[in-house]
Amino acid sequence: MKKRTLSAGTVALLLLATVSLPAAGQTTTFTARSGSKMRIEGTANILHPTWQIESPIIGGILEVGPGFPTEPGQAVTPGKVEAKADVFIQVRSLKSVKEDGSHYDDRMDEVMCEHLKEAQFKRIFYHLTELTLKEAPRTKDAPYVFDAKGDLTVAGVTNKITMTVSILPLADKKLEITGSTAVKMTDFKVAPVDINLVLGHIKTGDEVKLIFKWMVAQPKNRGAAAK
Length: 227
Fold this sequence. Notes:
Shape: elongated
Order of helices and strands: HEEEEEEEHEEEEEEH
Structural class: alpha+beta
Number of domains: 1
């Protein structure tokens, strides 16, 4: 009798383990790709009503669970989705730019790095904590619109932020993720620029706007590529 009881228990455990395996394998991973852009815009007292710095590189990884739209036109149900992401930008990759996108000024780049404490904190980080699908797109080519909550770390200081994010599934298992939000530099203990340069006395406002396009894709199957 004891042998049968133990045997039945063992079979039950094996069945449970077998059932749980597919669920664990349903996570899909996306990694950063070229074509991304991070842009920070703010106000200034001279030259132009706004200033802007840009980086063409956004690194990181996105992991999503079942029900996340990974294909164009995929049917989805509004509500919270299983997703986590860790994103980063090298502070040194941010450069001041003119309205036409050309480089603005090396000294401005240096001032920006000083204010962001680049010598001590090399990267800006974002950690996604919650993603909620607001509604399904009306057409196959339209993006899925989400409410995103996460932690933004600038110059070693972390704050919680919320923003609207649009995710557009593309061909070749790629995603185009876009969004924007406004933050205050002083919330991250970063002082607005107030300095005398050759161009004149430059003073920037406290609030800045973060605008991004993050391109990610599923890693290619190495085994398939080898064939």
